[in-house]
Design a protein that fits this description.
With about 325 residues, the protein is α/β, with parallel strands linked by helices. It contains 11 helices and 9 strands. It has a 6-stranded parallel beta sheet, sandwiched between helices. A hairpin with a 2-residue loop joins strand 8 and strand 9. Helix 6 packs across helix 7, helix 8 packs antiparallel against helix 11 and helix 9 packs across helix 10.
């Protein structure tokens, strides 16, 4: 299949549409994580649908001192990867095509959610992101748009914008793709030296430590619920050795720190150790948040949550996250 390279909205709008159009938005420098998004889009759109990949390095998303000029531009390689993954077209507009007449005077505001975590570290970033996503949705006119869960706060804000502003598009989330050593795939990984990459692995290790601590605590609590700790029950089960198991489960589930505090502590320990490495990891934030608004959850929280981390290693800033479930739903 030949993948068309388009540079104007007029070219894109001239294409004949027979089925659903699925769009994957990128800033280029495509890797296997993007390929997974494109393959998912191909599956959703079906053989009669169309998959369009946008490649646009959005200047509104880069603040002072960030890496706009340094950001990799690899359009030829991007076109090849997109084609192999199943894209029908790559839409790679110029800055003038997206922002005719210069930077837009009217922009989408991310609101309070856009001022937390990534928004606090990168003021204005989410306003720029939502503005370009809104423009690209209008320019590409998709039925479905797919985004990676790696950028969890971005995904949450796009979903909120689409809902609050009545965009007629379905937003689909695709799980984070990781390299074999656990590092989340990112175009910025190429900036890491071998030593920096070893330090950067602390991000995913910290998330996995928090996840494992949570899983162990939930398993103990489940065990405690299944085996009551009453004296009569313990005596009745002693013949098959269950009394000690019941006592241990109740003791650990009751005495060991659990819930969100334990998850944060387990992750923090890994990050603190990485701060002493050479080169060191410099933490921006570690947060355990409600994905509805990205505020920190409390110790009696139940439901879906996101454990998120951002840090710098050398000159490279990296982010990562994993979903967790607290309470009876888990």
């Amino acid at each position: 299949m030949t993948t068309a390279l388009l540079s104007t909205a007029e070219e894109l709008h001239a294409r004949v549409r027979r089925g659903r159009r699925a769009v994957v938005m990128t800033m280029g420098a495509l890797h296997e994580g993007h390929a997974t998004l494109i393959r998912s889009a191909r599956e959703i759109a079906g053989p009669d649908g169309e998959v369009v990949v946008t490649v646009f390095v959005n200047p509104l998303q880069f603040g002072a001192g960030e890496d706009l000029d340094r950001y990799p531009r690899t359009l030829d390689a991007d076109l090849e990867l997109a084609g192999r993954a199943g894209a029908d077209a790559v839409f790679a507009p110029s800055v003038d095509e997206v922002y005719p007449g210069g930077e837009p005077q009217v922009r989408v505001s991310a609101g309070p959610m856009g001022e937390r975590l990534e928004g606090a570290s990168r003021p204005g970033h989410f306003d720029g992101m939502l503005t370009v996503v809104a423009k690209l949705l209008h320019l590409t006119r998709p039925d479905i748009a797919l985004f990676g869960q790696k950028d969890a706060q971005q995904l949450a804000l796009i979903r909120r914008m689409v809902r609050d502003l009545n965009f007629g598009v379905e937003i689909v989330a695709v799980p984070t793709v990781r390299e074999e050593d656990g590092l989340a795939l990112s175009s910025r990984n190429r900036y890491l030296s071998p030593d920096e990459r070893r330090t950067a692995l602390a991000l995913s290790r910290a998330l996995f430590a928090g996840r494992d601590r949570h899983a162990a605590q939930e398993a103990l609590r489940a065990r405690a619920r299944e085996v009551p700790s009453t004296h009569a029950r313990a005596e009745a089960l002693s013949a098959i050795g269950e009394s000690r198991a019941a006592a241990d489960a109740h003791a650990v589930a009751t005495a060991a720190p659990g819930g969100p505090a334990a998850v944060r502590a387990a992750a923090r320990q890994v990050l603190d150790e990485a701060a002493r490495l050479d080169p060191p990891l410099r933490l921006d934030y570690l947060a355990l948040v409600d994905p509805a608004d990205f505020t920190e959850i409390n110790d009696d929280f139940t439901g879906e949550a996101v454990l998120a981390v951002a840090a710098r290693v050398g000159a490279t800033r990296l982010i990562d996250n994993i979903p967790l479930t607290f309470g009876a739903a888990s």
